[in-house]
Amino acid sequence: MTNPTHPSINRASDNGALLKQDMGARARVIEHTIDTLLPLTTGGDARLIEAMRYATLGGGKRLRGYLAIVTASLFGVPESQSARVAASVEMLHAYSLVHDDLPAMDDDDMRRGQPSTHRKFDEATAILAGDALQTKSFEILATSQTHTDANVRIDLISAFAEASGAAGMVGGQMIDMEGEGRALPLEEVRHLHALKTGCLIRYSAESGAILGQASPDLRRRLRSYGANIGAAFQIADDVLDATATAEELGKTAGKDEASGKSTFVALLGIEGAKAEALRVTEEAIADLEPFGAQADRLRDLAYYVIERKN
Question: What keywords were assigned to this record (predicted)?
Answer without folding.
Answer: Isoprene biosynthesis, Magnesium, Metal-binding, Transferase
